[in-house]
Amino acid sequence: MSVDERILVVAAHPDDEVLGCGGTLARYRALGWPVRVVFLAEGVTARYQPEQFSLPEVVEKSARRNANALKALALLGVDADQVFLAKRPCCRLDQVPLLDLTKQIEAHIRDFRPTRLFTHSADDPNVDHGVTHRAMLPAVRPLPGQSLRAIFAFEVLSSTEWNPLKPFAPTVFTDISQTMELKVAAMAAYEDEMHPPPHPRSPEVLRALGHFRGAQAGMTYAEGFALIRGLNL
After folding, report:
1. For each of the chain's 233 residues, which pLDDT tens digit applies?
2. Contact 15, 60 (CB under 8 A)
3. Which residues are CB-contacts of 187 (< 8 A; sequence separation ≥ 6)?
4. 32 φ, ψ (degrees, to nearest 5)
5. Could you tell me which CATH number the domain at 7-230 has?
6. Chain Cα centroid distance, residue 108
7. PANTHER family recorded for this chain (predicted)?
């Protein structure tokens, strides 16, 4: 692997980045690779009606989710100044002009010059996850001078697996045997999002998925990704 890699994560909501590639981010940061995480929406308001968004309870929960994102990513080694939070309401990205989202992603690509980008799967049934993927595609179109050498889609427990007719099929694996517990700890920082098993967002199921992906690649724990495009890998 190159020593000059730069990693950009484009995620819909805080916690998607940990579920999707938390172990990989921890591994990359241990190698000294710069990591930037960009969220396109906040992660709470889907549970409320628009007229409730300004209620103190909702504002506080959204603020706590954002604070938890900074804690989670700090555990993975990501610097706070490389975490970009958003105020767009959760599960309503389909109401935002796609061009606005694409331009936001393009701006980060120009500024950060990533070599690898991680984002949501095209077949994820969560509306914001699907929109994020679609907004990403034109932002990474292969133009001269493009910094990106690889673009990957990740899976998000309690979302991606809801599409049984198009199950997530990883083609690339990262060994996270040394960072699996960091991923679990980072997810635990999202205190409102963790649940007892058999809920998909439980420590037991996080480890189970990591163990299964690891078995697919001959290692103890792994994260699996679908390669969208790769250049000279």
Report:
1. 556 899 999 999 999 999 999 999 999 999 999 999 999 999 999 999 999 999 999 999 999 999 999 999 999 999 999 999 999 999 999 999 999 999 999 999 999 999 999 999 999 999 999 999 999 999 999 999 899 999 999 999 999 999 999 999 999 999 999 999 999 999 999 998 999 999 999 999 999 999 999 999 999 999 999 999 999 98
2. no
3. 15, 18, 19, 22, 72, 193, 194, 201, 203, 206
4. 90, 10
5. 3.40.50.10320
6. 15
7. N-ACETYLGLUCOSAMINYL-PHOSPHATIDYLINOSITOL DE-N-ACETYLASE, N-ACETYLGLUCOSAMINYL-PHOSPHATIDYLINOSITOL DE-N-ACETYLASE-RELATED
